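Ticket reopened. Same input as before:
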Amino acid sequence: MSTTLTSRSHRGIDPSGRPRRVRVGIIGATGYVGGELVRLLARHPNVDLVGLTGRGRDHDPIGGVHQHLATLDLDIHAELPDDVDAVFMALPHGAAADLAPGLIERGAAIIDLGPDFRLHDPGDYPRWYGFEHPRPDLLELAVYGLPEFHRAELSALVAADIAIVGAPGCYPTATLLALAPLARAGLIADLVVDAKSGVSGAGREARAGLLYGEVNESVKAYGIGGHRHVAEIEQELAEITGREGLDPGANPGIIAVDFLPHLIPMTRGILSACHVRPTRPITQAELDRLYATAYEDEPFVTVVANAPATKDVTASNHVRIHVSLDERTGRILAIGVEDNLVKGAAGQAIQAFNLVHGLPETAGLEQLPLSP
Amino acid sequence: MSTTLTSRSHRGIDPSGRPRRVRVGIIGATGYVGGELVRLLARHPNVDLVGLTGRGRDHDPIGGVHQHLATLDLDIHAELPDDVDAVFMALPHGAAADLAPGLIERGAAIIDLGPDFRLHDPGDYPRWYGFEHPRPDLLELAVYGLPEFHRAELSALVAADIAIVGAPGCYPTATLLALAPLARAGLIADLVVDAKSGVSGAGREARAGLLYGEVNESVKAYGIGGHRHVAEIEQELAEITGREGLDPGANPGIIAVDFLPHLIPMTRGILSACHVRPTRPITQAELDRLYATAYEDEPFVTVVANAPATKDVTASNHVRIHVSLDERTGRILAIGVEDNLVKGAAGQAIQAFNLVHGLPETAGLEQLPLSP
Amino acid sequence: MSTTLTSRSHRGIDPSGRPRRVRVGIIGATGYVGGELVRLLARHPNVDLVGLTGRGRDHDPIGGVHQHLATLDLDIHAELPDDVDAVFMALPHGAAADLAPGLIERGAAIIDLGPDFRLHDPGDYPRWYGFEHPRPDLLELAVYGLPEFHRAELSALVAADIAIVGAPGCYPTATLLALAPLARAGLIADLVVDAKSGVSGAGREARAGLLYGEVNESVKAYGIGGHRHVAEIEQELAEITGREGLDPGANPGIIAVDFLPHLIPMTRGILSACHVRPTRPITQAELDRLYATAYEDEPFVTVVANAPATKDVTASNHVRIHVSLDERTGRILAIGVEDNLVKGAAGQAIQAFNLVHGLPETAGLEQLPLSP
Amino acid sequence: MSTTLTSRSHRGIDPSGRPRRVRVGIIGATGYVGGELVRLLARHPNVDLVGLTGRGRDHDPIGGVHQHLATLDLDIHAELPDDVDAVFMALPHGAAADLAPGLIERGAAIIDLGPDFRLHDPGDYPRWYGFEHPRPDLLELAVYGLPEFHRAELSALVAADIAIVGAPGCYPTATLLALAPLARAGLIADLVVDAKSGVSGAGREARAGLLYGEVNESVKAYGIGGHRHVAEIEQELAEITGREGLDPGANPGIIAVDFLPHLIPMTRGILSACHVRPTRPITQAELDRLYATAYEDEPFVTVVANAPATKDVTASNHVRIHVSLDERTGRILAIGVEDNLVKGAAGQAIQAFNLVHGLPETAGLEQLPLSP
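Engineering reply: fixed in the latest deploy. New output:
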């Protein structure tokens, strides 16, 4: 690889001593996640937003696509400039895997918000997403961008030649953070995840099923029998528990995730309710200690005693986790809530980006939740 | 009991041969369920709505409480007239148990929409509702008013001296109808019920947590660790399965219901997602047959192949049930949707009332769902 | 015209003495208005719904298009049967004008819910709708289907060879009913109509601007500077006031309607706030008398003392009207609320249909409003 | 007054040269506006939030009242500390007028978000708010805190002994900014303001009419015949136009504001539609120039060519203004949209506070709007 690449790879170093600036581009700036990236990165203290691309648009002002961002002096172009330090990609599955190699050649760090770099096993792509991954070699280098799980690996990318982050899906983020302390303690014998999401998770494309008149005053399940996010959830739980895999048939007591998402009449927010049958009896006090310890130093995760609402974290990178034991049935309930477009997408990607570039992890993500 | 009572007890007979008229009163007409009873009964072809009472009001026109019903020429009074044939009660728990005996004395059939006559075991009242039931003898007579479960017993009340119906709770209705075919076939080994309800289920009293600004754009769980409706669900499932009880500790494999309700930003509607680990492997085809057979003759229950939305049944007495097997995990998902104020409350109570009075079961309940 | 036509034209006569049946077809049954027509007509006591057509579908069950109507045993076909007595059309502008002549030939009454038969002046079509009307001769025969304005003309169609009803637009209905008593009394000197509509008025086609994520938690004006419904409003106000026209430049003091609609984050409902500067000072008592007299015998219009909410009339054919004088400024506020899909579309069309066929005006429209 | 007061009154001077810090207290931190003040001030670069009080609470953590702010380490106390530099008050009318004098004695700048210091004429308080103002002398000193109207006067408070800001009401902000260019040009002959607000403007107190079930899927007008915000709107328009007053009877052609607010099923946002009959014919081009000139240097006001939605400015201090001429009727439509809790309350108060303390006007208010 080129000299340029080598010099860029020291992403955390700024010999001048001045506040560090990172030149950032966004590919796929016209969707909801793209808009959220622009909103947050335009106010990030260390970022120069030098390029936006999206869906067949060129020279369009950002306000033409995202009316709320019309006061920003930014245009969407057909191409990013050559000298970007980092590229966020918010694209349909399969697209980022095709574009990433060229960007890596140019020395850019890749923060992909789609699924193309989340899964380690190339065989998962045809199985869950219906395409053959074109670069299994890059999958090996990619880090799953959940900082609470992989902080050290993300930080190590500061000095790596190639930096690829597969930012987690919206459901896996809330689910994995709710379950991690139980998984690490080997406590999950059986698992049902019943999740609820606002409609922004379905994207911005005009579909009849997402019209206001269809969504308001209604709730429905979808993705019955196998939502794609199961692949990530099982991958990360397996990694934590140190097991080879989670094939439910292979081993009694092995975790197989029953995952059911619902479409809720709201725009932002995910609540993931994880119903866990534990491997052994446990007390509420033990659960409380487990969770308090797990998250005491996390800047964005708060363990709460009462049932959290998605509105408690709207417009912020915060996650709230609640855990409780049903003494009558012996089952554990672990709930996680997030804003699907922030901690579930753009915010979390920026959190990983900060680590990859040696910036403070919370840079650009200090906003408090918005309520009511 | 009196001659009057005896003559009234032949609820289904109209010797004149004219269309049957029933004189109906409502106690507790000022809440949401009360309003829904008025809305439906005012258009019921066999009902004369002869009395409404509610919350310290007297001589108030119905439109003062329920603005949408202002065109009805009905007032709320402090007392019902003496000669009512049937009384619907929509009251906080404990109140109906106190009022029912006097009404029974007067020969009226009782359709209680609260929990006071739903549970057969008097011990369940202090345990789940915090009060001692004043008339355990009446509990023995009361019929759980889910026509799809107890049609024959409800119809038998036509000729009974005393007719008491404990109309089911909103969550149990959707949940029990979703689970019944599995329960009857002895297929439920393990059960998690994750339910979602619109806010009208929480009633009409002004509480800060139910303000629009708190509810919209948010979802949260509540009743964690023991919602009261568990008692009904377990009672009815136990009755179906023929087991003594459902104490999860007593017998491995016995059903204990893990039930978690959520508050959804919508007004009407309940979706109950029942995650069932079956007692034996089963195929989708077998499930389809089981459900088709169970509901083929039911006027208000429809089995659907695709995930139903609560909006599919809004403003109607319909329930839609979906069942599917997750082949990967072996678990069964059974979903029921209803309008919590109709099939989950007022409509179902009227359905039971029709049976108790020998009227066509669907009388006054023919409305099609309202969408969008 | 044929004998068949002649015999059909006596729409109100049923020599057999049995309850009158009308064979009805719907062209354009797949949109929101079409669905609402099906919902109401399927329960109309005098209607046999013999044919449905819609958007390139053939042999599709109604439940495939309108999931809430899946329990009806009705299919959508490419063509209506030949022997329909009446046809409702819910089509984009221009389409009904093309189809109507053929249906009239076959003797069917036409109830058009689009604009093609609302305006009397053929010149209004190119001006407001951008097309030349193909049959100005039929425009002369068409009756504007607002029964509160044109009841006698609608009833006269019972015996007419050709029956064409141009059912009013959603905004004009609420607006005209709010203004009629003032207009008849010659009291309108200056008029601003500021209207608010739920999104179902924009139809069911997938458009990005109507996605839940765009509509919820937002309000915006649209149609600035000339919404098409102005044409109807001015036509009917001019007819009432007896003036040649309402050209604001022609005559000081002549009514020109400033009409501004807004898109509100709700599905159903229109509220039209009419700000009127009166031609002379007036008292509240006089206004009250004027409105009470105007609407005392109307089955669907209620004058209310307090500000009405759209929810007061949801799912019903009711309209509520409020009028009040601002003593400080001397201006009159007249407010009308309706369900845009019922009284603003399908319900009103059925009301007109009833008159055209000599049926009771309220047949099939007795539903009470739905709230909460 | 005391030496302390004098030294504090030089609010803009920091002799040390370090970044300026201001010690800020909030009285009334428990309502929606109070919560929004905390949310914004906790992230304000120049503010130390040293005290919060609210509704009978003492030592309660902020998260107990505002769950979304639970990660802040702030408690609510019965009293503010003595040495606050500035106090924001978000209280029911009448309360701030009582508390302000004591705080002024202690040298604090007062930013009142209620109406107690908005109106210059003491006679307006009994008339519009039903109480006698206890300190008319302070009314004379108070500045109406709309920076776009009174920037110089607000900045002059840096050096004043007493600094009192009456931050504008939510409706007047959007309305006045929409109308100002027309008013300054003497173009308003007749004015109807038809405004729409989310429910957060009604506050956080539990009232049945604000329950989700009542508000969703409904719209209604309120405050018919004289909302209190009319007083502010007329005061400021009169000041601009240089007229003595706006008594509609006094002078033909004088502005009297017909103001009608509506409750919209959304949480945040106000849209004010101002229907103006101009004093003389005008062109769209002239309007465009007028508005462009008026707002070209304003940091928070943007003039837009298309109809703005409230969602375009949610969670930000931005206002968007649209103006258009209806050539057919000759009337001008001027629309303003804002987030009622930010530019309509807390954000605008902070903007004024910044000016009063010699801070950059946009400090702490740089957030971009949140959408979807």
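Residues 170-184 of chain B form the longest helix (15 residues). The mean pLDDT of chain B is 92. Please confirm and we'll close it.
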